Amino acid sequence: MNEKNSLGLNLCFKEHNNPIKLFEEWFNKAKKTEINDPNAFAVGTVNKNGFPTVRMVLLKDFDKNGFVFYTNLNSDKSKAIRNTSKISMCFHWKSLQRQIRIVGVASKVSKKEADDYYNSRAYGSRIGAWASKQSSILKLRQDLYKSIEEFKKKYPNKNNIPRPEHWSGWRIKPKEIEFWLDGQNRIHERLKYIRLTKKWKKVLLSP
Fold first, then answer.
1. pTM value?
2. What are the C-alpha distances in Å from 50 to residues 37, 57, 83?
3. Hey, which residues are catalytic here?
4. Which run of H or of E encompasses 193?
């Protein structure tokens, strides 16, 4: 007999009143089962013309204050965030048949956080942050390679490459977090946390 928790859900939902704790447990499980990039998630934004756009990015940090990813501040996603800071996220772990959907508000991380993460990256990735004008039209691929070589000459010391001002991170402070588990005959299990003033409210959703 399949045991359930007090809400009638699979025991993997646990009994946490704080969704960040449940996210941490699901995420740690995904690290053991996903072949590639368990920290990959789809991030959805709305551009100045009102069109929603979605792309995959990598989660680099999370805590009670939100979920962090890094990018070029001149990229389409960053421009969209400046247009409206309301944002959505979706993790899908096929190996676990689980999904987590998050909606929240994005804000830039501190300079220290951005510096610390930037300096932890591989040399080539740090050079790439300088060389690539992300989302801009590229006439020839060779132009990008040329730019990379130019910045390698400019910053030959692998231990001393300053972070570009146009490269930083966004922190998404969640307003709602939904945990989803695949169910037989598409009778999925869904648990949603809604942020109130000082605590989280839990509700069940129909599949």
1. 0.93
2. 30, 21, 10
3. 186
4. strand 189-195
